[in-house]
Every structure is written in C-alpha cells, then in structure tokens.
Design brief:
single chain, 207 residues, mainly alpha, Ferritin, 5 helices, 0% strand
Length: 207
C-alpha cells in the first residue's frame, strides 16, 4: 500500500495532579509482569506505595487501552490485510490483560476507575507532564469505522502508530515518578512491546 499522510488530531488525555516527592525506584522482582501479551491479572500493588501519578497513569492507560481494543475489533471486521488483522489480534491479546491488572490496582488503591470530572470527560488538562496520549477523537473513530479494505488498513495503521506513541510517552513519564514496582514493570512492558509494534506498522505502511 502507498503511504499517505493522514491528518490526525489526537485528543489530549490529561489530568491535573500533584506529584508527591519521589524517592528511588523500587527494584524488587514483580513476578509475572514481563513479556508481551502476558496476563498480569495476578499482579498487585500496595496502596501505601502508590502515589497520585500512579493512580492517574492507571486511570488514563485503561481508557487508552480500551480505545486500542476498540480499534482492534474494527480491524477484525474491516481490514483487508491479513497482517493488519493479525497485528490487531496481538494488540488486543496484550492490552486486555493489562486493563484487568490496572483495574485491580485501582480497586486495591481504593481509587476511582476514571478521572474525577464534571462531565466524565478528561478534557485537555495536563497529567503531571504526561501530555497528549495519542487518543483518537470521536470523529476519527467514526471515520475509521466507516472505512473498508485497503483504505481502512492505511488509516488504521496511521492511527494506531499515533496511539502507540501516546502510550509510550505516558509510560516513559510515569517511569520518571513511580516508586511502585508493578507500575514500573507494566510501563516498561508498554514501552518495549508497543515500540516493536510501531516498527511493524511502519513497515506495513511502506508495502
């Protein structure tokens, strides 16, 4: 397929948080947190070690992953390329268990599943410097949902690259603040796995 430029306007996932003073990172072993696509549903974090940035990261990344899963479901129905469909299934298989893990964290931390907001929208606030997270707008998701075949494949790849880049940015930024070993391990997995997937998608765009 020929690479074409798609104008994407990523909505900013964000939150105003006060970051607590950070000490050195907890480097203790986290068990089954490693490996792309591996289920982390048994991982836990202590409420005493989670700070506001950890909570915000989990809340935002859950929403971020849920949109990626929605995009993966669209690819299973509308993509023309088998490679795109396979990659979409891989993304869904990796991010579904991570959503379950982060949901469990928030329950253990006795934190809400979503950001406090008057209308439920996270708006354009800055999440402790995390910035825009590569989320697609409603209009972009509708445009993707109405596309088919080769056009869908190209649009999906371009959007998912932007989406992954946002997730990597969020993960890198929480790594600078967290003292929670489980958060560190999951964020490192996000950076590693999604960078590999970005490289694969960039290659597919040049075919």
């Amino acid at each position: 397929m020929r690479a074409r430029t798609l104008a994407l306007t990523s909505t900013g996932l964000a939150l105003a948080v006060v970051l607590t003073a950070c000490g050195t990172n907890d480097e203790s072993s986290t068990g089954g947190m490693g490996g792309m696509g591996e289920s982390r549903s048994n991982s836990t974090s202590s409420a005493s070690t989670a700070d506001a940035a950890d909570v915000a990261f989990a809340q935002l990344m859950i929403a971020h992953h849920q949109q990626a899963i929605e995009m993966a479901d669209l690819a299973s129905k509308s993509a023309q390329s088998t490679q795109v469909k396979d990659l979409a299934a891989q993304i869904k298989g990796a991010q579904g268990p991570e959503v379950e893990t982060m949901t469990q964290w928030l329950q253990e931390w006795e934190a809400p599943m979503t950001m406090p907001s008057g209308d439920g929208d996270m708006g354009d606030m800055d999440m402790g410097g995390m910035g825009a997270a590569g989320m697609m707008s409603d209009a972009e998701m509708k445009m993707l949902a109405t596309s088919r075949g080769a056009e869908f494949d190209q649009m999906w790849l371009q959007m998912m690259i932007a989406h992954h880049q946002g997730a990597i940015t969020m993960a890198q930024q929480v790594l600078d603040t967290t003292n929670t070993a489980e958060v560190t391990a999951l964020a490192e997995d996000v950076v590693q796995a999604q960078q590999v997937e970005i490289e694969t998608m960039q290659q597919l765009l040049t075919q």
